[in-house]
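Re: that chain you flagged

S.,

Sorry for the slow reply, it's been a week of failed gels. I finally had a moment to sit down with the sequence you sent. For the record, here it is as I used it:
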Amino acid sequence: MTFLDAIQKYSKKIAIIDNNKKITYEKLIKKSENLVKKIEKRSLVFILGGNNYETIAYYVGLVRSKSVIVLIDPNLNNLFLINLIKQYKPNYIILPNKKQKLSGYNKISNFLNYSALKKQNNNKINLHKDLAILLTTSGSTGSPKLVRQSYKNYIDNSKNIIQELKIDSTDSVITTLPISYTFGLSIINTYLISGSKIILNEKSILESDFWKLFNKVSPTSFYGVPFTYEILLKLKFRNLNNKNLKIFGQAGGKLNDDIFKKVVNFSLKNNIKFYSMYGQTEATARMSILNHKDAEKKIGSIGKPLKNGKFFIVNKNKKIVNKPFYKGELIFEGKNVCYGYSNNYLDLSHGNLNNFKLFTGDIAFFDKEKFFFIVGRKKRIIKIFGSRINLDEVENIIEKLGYKAICKQEDNILSIKVAKNKFNEKYLINKISELFNLNKSIIKLEKISRLPRNKIKKNF
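Prediction finished late last night. Pasting the structure tokens below so you have them in one place:
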């Protein structure tokens, strides 16, 4: 059984709206089944997908036919894509027509703006029976380290999110995040499973076309990462003149306390339920939710764990500390914790190595009412606009470009100190932007005479 099997019961209801075209669940399922007829069941399939009908149809068909899917940002640098293909040797690749030339693969079919490619020397990959989806740990760097997620992970996580947010078949949502991003995928899954309506959108909230669509379709739900809410605040929420809107959801990093308060105030005035959530790809998507009823009195909290999930705080010796306000590493236990990582196709046969326990790498504490708060990171992994970035990977790639550098995060800026007397600033910013799929405006370069003797390996 897969987590999308039950969607057929919604039959005549509208599943997705794409470019003003309404597609029912019945039509979506029929199309998805036709699309995967040429794809052998239980294959490893790469999808370079976006928020469009083609991606959703292939995705639904492949999940229901039990192929294992690797969701990839279609804007991923080609060198990184080739490396991923080399490490995982996917049996099939689904991608936009404009990117369909890949060595060793032949086109077998196409649907609208997408094509399906098959490996010329197709190899049988040993896939664990529970394995459903693989997601990258750092979407823009093309690292071969992927998170192995199971059908059970998705069934449990989706069910608990739907129950907590009270999502049902009367709801609708507009896509604001990539499907290759764990939070974006989680939104699509929970609304499909609920029989809700998904308005597919690939425009940024900075574009007027997004707001024209938003106000035309009037969704009941809106989700974003901290940057999304920063933009909404700068716009003074003036575009949100939608009386149907009843859910605001935020995840993908900590929201500034001042912005948090303003979002809560706006929500209360407009009878919107604001849910702040916390999650990681390793936990399928979401681990905790701050209920809208508690948002005003618990500013900045990640709330409490989802049903059947548990949080623990441990000290340096990995011993559980039950004392309020003690700051230690946050540990999560729940059925949505992934089976582990993979670095190549040989790792895809492995079972549940995590045993449903996740060391998050976040430093946190809980208060007397058992609400949890994140205060920092243990490792050099940061989040900017919802994207997780490993600073060590950034520094290593910059070094390959001929520069020595040290990176850190300053608010929503990737700050890079370059140890070189002369360097082409424009070239380096363009290259980093291209390789890591980052907006140039968030990259800050600074020249220093030399790197510290003992380069500090932490997010400071």
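What I noticed first: The CA atoms of residues 93 and 228 lie 31 Å apart.

Talk soon,
D.
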